[in-house]
Amino acid sequence: MSGAGGPERYDPGDIPEYGEGSGDGRDGPGNPSGTPPEPAGPPRIPTPRNAAEDTSGWPGLLPLLPEPESPEEPEGQESPEEAESPEGPNSPESPAEAPPLPRQTDTSETSATHRPPSHDVLRSLLGAWALTACSPDETAAVEAHLNHCTSCAEEALRLREAVGLLHAEHNLDLDPLLRSRVLAGCLGRRPARIPVPGWAAAYDAEAARLDALLRDMGEAEWRAPVRLKWYDGRRLTGRDTTVAGVIGHLMVVDGVVAASLGLPDPLGDHAPGSLAARTEAYWHAEPDAAGGTGPSTLLRELWREQGHALVRTVSFAGRGASDLSVPFGDFTLPVRDAFLDRAFECWVHAGDIAEAVDYPYELPGSAHLKAMIDLCARLLPDALAQRRRAGLAAPPRRLVEAGAPGRTLHLEVEGTGGGNWYIPLDSPAAVGTAEEAVAHIALDPETFYQLAAGHVPPQEAAVGQLGDVEAIRDVLFATASLSRL
């Protein structure tokens, strides 16, 4: 081995018989002189090997291993190898120490690692690059290649255009109407003995959609901040809470309907009358639930069981339950409209929750959407009259007898689930007709949802307008004033 005292003499057993060169050019042709051939390159540290294989020829030149660093020794001190050698380092039988050769560096592996991919390899990645399926390193290599390769750049452009023709991405949510279609198919084969009333179907479907969204959420998402927004009649306002706080709000407002049907009220017998006061009382009494730190599974189960109880109760009650009055503080609705109101509220707050957790949420089914828009349209004449009494709307232009046609605004909601409604402008008792229309508003379902939920200022709603500007303004502001906490 090579030590601090220089290379040791070569062991004849490590090389073939004298005169039998390996013929690979490193130790020259056969050596007839009988002297040991010198190895090519500087002395190396051989790797450990078995004695049975120690009779092979002189190995080819291998990549050099780094030499171990030895601590500096004081001058004049013999190394252990020199002290143990009986012949000493300057023994005449030791081969003369060859001058050190330049250190060889094997750069083949390093250069292969940093060598850019070939043209053919990069061209084969163009399809994956167009689909954005490459790794970051592959993407960088392909895009660098496209800067100076015209043929690949043209091919990449064609592939990107082809990708645009593929089907657009869809979210993983089920079709909102799937549940209704499955139930309709089942009931068509075997009608239910106790069917769910048609006016309660929208609430049943929207509560089920919201429950499906909540079922996939983790504890951290239940604590996600949510900004509840509504229009208070003069300006947009809001309240900060969490996902858990929103579900608690829905539960206590649904409790008003439950109490009207003889079911337990979540807030007990001495609950406040107004909807905002009920919500604030719940958030104050259950700060953990409102803050999202309580058991979210229990809260969701309480809200969902209450919804099931509402639907079961009106289903067993039959037609007699539809005309019962439900007091919502400042106004009263029959049970059939109260269920549509709660369905709309589920849709609005499900959208708030989905926005807070960055999840897409689709519009309701067309039949349910039309029923909810119809409720809002029927509430608009009373909302106009209330704003007029508060001095927030223009006075009536032409009063007519109850049931007679009066000045009308034509409200058109476009798309699936939309329709045409005629809103009397001067009195809730008047009848709106197409012949008496003095203004026309056209908007899509999403815009109507944003406006009726109080999420956008009325003057900024994207609507098509034609006719009496004052009447259009009054109806837009009245629609926004339907929103509440």
Classify the fold: give the CATH topology of the domain at 198-362.
Answer: Four Helix Bundle (Hemerythrin (Met), subunit A)
| Share in β-strands | 5-15%
Shape, principal axes of CA atoms: globular
How many strands, which pairing sense, and closed or not: the largest β-sheet?
Answer: 4 strands, mixed
Chain-averaged pLDDT: 80
Q: Uncertain regions: pLDDT < 50 for 5+ in a row?
A: 1-36, 50-65, 73-95, 105-112
The order of strands across the largest sheet is: 8-7-9-10
What would you call the structural class?
alpha+beta
Radius of gyration: 43 Å
Helix content: 40-55%
State the distance separating the first and last CA atoms: 88 Å
Give me the count of strands: 10
* CATH fourth-tier homologous superfamily of the domain at 198-362: dinb family like domain
The CATH top-level class label of the domain at 198-362: Mainly Alpha
Count of separate DSSP helical elements: 17
CATH architecture of the domain at 198-362: Up-down Bundle
Q: Which H/E pattern describes the elements?
A: EEHHHHHHHHHEEHHHHEEHHEEEHEH
Short characterization:
Helix content is 42%, strand content 12%. The chain has 485 residues and is of the alpha+beta class. Among the domains are: 46 residues, no CATH class; 165 residues, Four Helix Bundle (Hemerythrin (Met), subunit A); 111 residues, Nonspecific Lipid-transfer Protein, Chain A (2-Layer Sandwich), CATH 3.30.1050.
